[in-house]
Design goal:
The chain folds into 2 domains: about 1-150, Carbamoyl-phosphate synthase small subunit, N-terminal domain (Glucose Oxidase, domain 1, 3-Layer(bba) Sandwich), CATH 3.50.30; about 155-354, Rossmann fold. Helices cover about 25% and strands about 35% of the residues. It is built from 10 helices and 19 strands. The chain has helices at about 35-40, 95-100, 115-125, 140-145, 155, 180-190, 205, 225-235, 245-255, 345-354; strands spanning about 1-5, 10-20, 25-30, 50-55, 55-60, 75-80, 80-85, 105-110, 125-130, 165, 170-175, 195-200, 215, 240-245, 260-275, 280-295, 305-310, 315-320, 325-330. The strands form 3 sheets. Strands 10-12-11-13-14-19-18-17-15-16 form a 10-stranded mixed beta sheet, sandwiched between helices. The termini are far apart.
Length: about 350
């Protein structure tokens, strides 16, 4: 079956559909990871997005029951140059095509993903539509795209109610803005007693469990849309150690009086070099974000930049001077290269020890 991708600027691509059928609208982005499509599909940080894989062959190792970061697919669509119909892997339990069909997610294959990536790099990420409806007029698609609003992305991926993962160590309250399972695993393997709260939880509710520290999780969308979450974090600052990751790092910065800006095409992939300025060492990190914190909004007496992106010098980490709080933009639990940035969880544990 034919499928079509139309971008906000009018660009049009024709390919073949796999996965679900229908019409889907979202923000079209590209990801440079060579593997990990199942983790990417189930990452709540990708909610509302149509993801283009720059690696040309996708689906060759199928899908399994272990490589998921949440309990559902979160993306709106998946785009690949070449799609593998017959995967080969000892852990594979299903085809990617069936996996997408079961979860109601559309796929598009057979288009020039290099050309699409160039457009997104030159013009920036933009909204787009994937459809299997050949009768849908081009102008009608453009009107749908231009009137599209992503809605409450964080509200769509957060837990509905608080849940507890027992442990014998520090009690950590995780504010779930779209938390990944690997983040929670990083806490539990350090014996943390974890309480996961929905994104709309109030500060008083969070403090009732008597946490030793607060972790602000990763999540999707524009941090400036998270006004209520910022207000809650403001009430928690100074009371307990706070660690922010991804969207949580951005919300922490906004609560501290900082600002965030949108990147032209974002950082999405498993090969982003980040320098820890304190260690004078560069790590290869996994990233998945379209917004960054503006460093120039903080003076040296209130905050210090701890990590920078070696590709574009954007801020990747900030430590706050007057309160026990810090945040990083990348995913520290993912080991993309030699050397593990999981030491940041250990620093959070040490902060709670003190």
């Amino acid at each position: 079956m034919k499928a079509f991708l139309i971008l906000e600027d009018g660009s049009r691509f024709t390919g073949e559909a796999f996965g679900a059928e229908g019409t889907y609208i979202g923000e079209v982005v590209f990801n440079t990871s060579m593997t990990g499509y199942q983790e990417l599909l189930t990452d709540p940080t990708n909610a509302g997005q149509i993801v283009t894989m720059t690696y040309p062959l996708i689906g060759n190792y199928g899908v399994n029951e272990e490589d998921v970061t949440s309990d559902k697919i979160c993306v709106k669509g998946l785009i690949a140059r070449e799609f593998c119909d017959e995967p080969s892997n000892w852990r594979s339990v299903d085809f990617l095509d069936n996996y997408l069909k079961k979860n109601g997610v559309i796929g598009l294959k057979g288009i020039d993903t290099r050309e699409l990536t160039r457009i997104l790099r030159e013009k920036g990420t933009m909204n787009g539509i994937i459809t299997t409806d050949a009768g849908l007029e081009h102008e009608e698609c453009l009107n749908k795209i231009r009137n599209f609003k992503p809605g409450n992305l964080v509200g769509n991926v957060t837990t509905e109610k608080m849940y507890h993962i027992p442990g014998t160590g520090h009690k950590v309250a995780v504010l779930d803005y779209g938390v990944k399972g690997s983040l929670l695993n990083s806490l539990t393997k350090r014996n943390c007693d974890v309480y996961v709260f929905p994104a709309n939880a109030e500060a008083e509710e969070i403090l009732t469990v008597g946490p030793d520290g607060i972790l602000l999780s990763n999540g999707p969308g524009n941090p400036q849309d998270c006004k209520s979450q910022v207000d809650v974090v403001k009430k928690l600052l100074g009371k307990l150690p706070v660690f922010g990751i991804g969207l949580g790092h951005q919300i922490l910065a906004l609560a501290m009086g900082g600002e965030t800006t949108k990147l032209k095409y974002g950082h999405r992939g498993g090969n982003h070099p980040v320098k820890d300025l304190g260690k004078d060492r560069t790590y290869i990190t996994a990233q998945n974000h379209g917004y960054v914190v503006s460093a120039d909004k903080f003076d040296t007496e209130s905050a210090v930049v701890t990590h920078i992106n070696m590709n574009d010098n954007t801020v990747e980490g900030i430590k706050y001077i007057k309160i026990p709080a810090f945040g990083v933009q990348f995913h520290p639990e993912v080991s993309s290269g030699y050397g593990d940035t999981g030491y940041l969880y250990d620093e959070f544990i040490s902060m709670m020890d003190k």
